[in-house]
Amino acid sequence: MGKSLKNSVNPDELYGEYGADTFRLYEMSMAPLDVSRPWETRAVVDMFRFLHRLRRNLVDEQSGVLRVHERPADDTIRPGCSIGRSRDSKTEALRCLNDASHASSSKP
Description:
This protein is mainly alpha-helical. The chain is 48% helix and 0% strand. The chain contains 4 helices and no strands.
């Protein structure tokens, strides 16, 4: 893939089409952060769909009113996540969270 073959992906066009939040989520979902990964346009589109699905769950489409409450019901409150608390650096905590997200999203 390259400019001479005219089959490259222009990030500016994708940024204009999908927005900055989609790219932020895509970059954060690539684990670990310090290792180079190949570009996947399909994954960017998947992140865009995820953000729209999340918005539809949180905001009423017709009225624009938030569907979430300020405080959850007492039976849904659970102790905080302990992932990353025992880690020394933020990178290790992010790597741990990314590993957990990739493990849960892998197909059996």
